[in-house]
Write the structure tokens for this entry.
Amino acid sequence: MRKNIKRIAVLTSGGDAPGMNAALEGLVTECQQNKIQVIGFYDGYQGLLENRKLILNPKEICRIANIGGSILGSMRSKDFETKKGRTLAKKVLEQNKIDVLVVIGGDGTMRGANDLSKLGVRVVGIPATIDNDLFGTDDTLGYKTAANVIVESLENLRNTADSCKATYLVYTMGRRSGFLALRGAISGRADSVLVPEKKISEQDLIAKVNKTFKSGARSHLIVISEAYFDKNEKKLQALLKLLDKKTLSSKVRLQDIGYLQRGSNPIEHDIYLGLTLGTGILKPLLDGKSNFMLGVSQNSFCFTPLADTDSKMVNPYDLILARRLNLL
Ligand code: F6P
């Protein structure tokens, strides 16, 4: 049965991700064709609680798809995590006569959406996080762009490391999973990768670095996911010191590329994916579907209940490939 929808609200939440703006542009464009008004709330769930909003006018929203970040702002909200906060969110949506809320973000965003749906709010999600750790889609928005930044960074770092016989530890984002680090390390042709899914002993890592230099190569690039030490700065510094002391590198340095990954303009893959998901989400809504996250798998849309989107394991093939390439 075709649902009558007059007003849709949208917000971007959590860490921003390249491709969020493409999803916004896609949604607004598709809604315009169907004479549906789109209201954007600023700064994720926090802006919703504070009723900070604007009408997303198709004329202003066109051509934002290629810009990184989110024009609405994207943040986490502690207030929304409480029952009181979510009840207020429902009230604000009712006051604004919103028929459906579309949330664009990662795991915390989908959890929040699921909690809101339990209060009877019609809510759906579009996956956007550079971490790619959501179940129900091959790629989340921003993941491939962020992996691409790792590749470009490794290419640059290789030039300088080769010149000065260095070992560089390239520190990447990915809060719970090694997805991003693994993919970037493979395509950027790193020498080693440290991900939580496959730990390596310090002794083995030292031996591996030394083998590189003994073979006559002039650099060793190690990609390390922030999830490897669970964001523990002390452990990271201790590893740096150890490598400096025990390896044949002339110097060992840390390069944190976290926010550079997130802040990049989207590559074509994420622009296309954002436009696809943003335009594609309206039809299932008009068809009466609700409380799902829209993903893409093997070139087809897939619908996952919001409650089931949490935590995707790394692609086992990436681990096999990394092993074949002697990264692990
Ligand atoms: O979840 C996306 C993400 O970019 C993670 O990779 C990272 O751990 C986290 O956000 C960083 O968040 P913040 O902006 O709060 O430092």
Notes: The chain has two domains: 7-142+266-308, 144-262. The pocket of 6-O-phosphono-beta-D-fructofuranose is lined by residues 14-15, 106, 129-131, 173-175, 226, 262 (CB under 6 Å). The longest strand covers residues 7-13. Residues 186 and 321 are 8 Å apart (CA to CA).
